[in-house]
Amino acid sequence: MSQLDLASVAEVSTRHLSYVETGRSRPSRELVLHLAAHLDVPHREQNDLLLAAGHAPAYRQFGLDDPEMAPVVSALQSILDGSEPNPTLVMDRHWNLLMANDSAFALTEGVADHLLTPSINVLRMTLHPEGLAPYLDDFDEIAAHLLHRLRRQIAVSGDDGLADLLDECEALAPGSHAVVEPSALPALPVTIQRGDEWVTYLSVISTFGGALDITTSELTIETFYEVGRTPATTTTPHLLNGSRPERQN
């Protein structure tokens, strides 16, 4: 977005915006928040902008165990319970698993223990050869989609932790770089082998509307809805040697 475009959208004079951008004028707290809102800057990064301008942060950050977060945790638990038998999980901004229902944990069968302790990083577990990768059909396409989501997060936040995660996961899924065309389907399915069947899911991602706390604003709730089952041509033990199964048409 050009300086002129931002000035027009935010209804700020181009001259004043130019002074702020070049450091000739220090923006007020109200201006920082006003511009950040028009640029869709996340709450955490809005706090960083305020500090850089010499102002106090605007948004607090609670832990899930804090009393103030009890309504949020209660709502999350209701979502998890109400989603059964659809696998549903709650992640933080680094893709670390915070909460999940029983159906989601059932998907981790066959995953190596070191990917499940001390905490589960959902992206790493999905793409790792000792995680869900050997059980996924169309692995490269799924990996390309997930890494695209991660790159968008990094572009918005500039988070170094996410950048490190991207480097790690790109090494786990080198074939994803060859995926340049999006799927012709209306939504990308996730097909995973469970026992003697391929189970196909579509995922729906939810966030909290009107979140004012940083932790709440960064929560991602992902639910996988089953849309089909197909008999598998191989059994799960065969997958443990790292080979990819051939899907039955």
Mean pLDDT over the residues: 89
Strand content: 5-15%
Task: Say how many strands there are.
Answer: 5
- Form type: globular
CATH architecture of the largest domain: 2-Layer Sandwich
| Rg for CA atoms | 22 Å
- The rounded distance between the terminal residues' Cα atoms is 47 Å
How helix-rich are the residues, as a percent range?
40-55%
**Number of helices in the DSSP assignment:** 11
Report on the structure:
- This protein folds into two domains: 3-52, no CATH class; 67-239, Beta-Lactamase (2-Layer Sandwich).
- Helices cover 41% and strands 14% of the residues.
- It has helices at 3-10, 14-22, 29-38, 43-52, 70-83, 102-106, 122-127, 139-157, 160-172, 214-217, 236-239, and strands spanning 88-91, 97-100, 190-194, 197-206, 220-231.
- A hairpin with a 5-residue loop joins strand 1 and strand 2 (97-100).
- Helix 8 (139-157) packs antiparallel against helix 9 (160-172).
- The termini are far apart.
How would you summarize this macromolecular structure in one to three sentences?
With 249 residues, this protein is α+β, with helices and mostly antiparallel strands. The chain has eleven helices and five strands. Helix 8 (139-157) packs antiparallel against helix 9.
Topology diagram in text:
Elements (H helix, E strand, L loop, with lengths): L2 H8 L3 H9 L6 H10 L4 H10 L17 H14 L4 E4 L5 E4 L1 H5 L15 H6 L11 H19 L2 H13 L17 E5 L2 E10 L7 H4 L2 E12 L4 H4 L10
Antiparallel strand pairs: 1-2, 1-5, 3-4, 4-5
